[in-house]
Amino acid sequence: MNNTQKLLNLATKAAENAYAPYSKFHVGAAILADDGKMYTGCNAENVSFPVGTCAEAGAIAAMVAGGGKKIAEILIFADSKQLISPCGACRQRILEFAMPQTIVHLANKEGVKQSIKAAELLPYSFSEF
Ligand code: THU
Fold first, then answer.
1. Out of 16, 45, 56, 120, which one is annotated catalytic?
2. Reported pTM
3. 75: Cβ–Cβ under 8 A, 6 or more apart, which residues?
4. Per-residue pLDDT tens over the stretch 105-114
């Protein structure tokens, strides 16, 4: 099984565990990091809506906590008709940890539907201060 397939399986599993009682929209994210390890996250909502967190944010936090420094590959999964695509804030989050070759895979139950370079997801991004 290749890495992308492994990420798809992990993200699908993470989405099953998502806490999304308000939106009912379950999202899973899985990262292959520069340390060779895979990390996952899911969305975790809150009754105070803005407090909820996205799957990507969870996976990135897990990577950082686990010692990973950079995202080699990230896959985002949702069982939705319209293809899942990271929100603006998560695009910025991904870019913070992206490498030049980092690919973002967008997937649903049929598998990976689109793969795009992280930098292309957020053109003209804020990077230095
Ligand atoms: N959500 C994610 O976890 N990732 C995305 O890329 C888009 C949206 C979550 C946030 C919220 O819990 C639910 O999906 C509906 O917006």
1. 56
2. 0.96
3. 4, 7, 8, 10, 11, 29, 30, 31, 104, 105, 106, 107, 112
4. 999 999 999 9
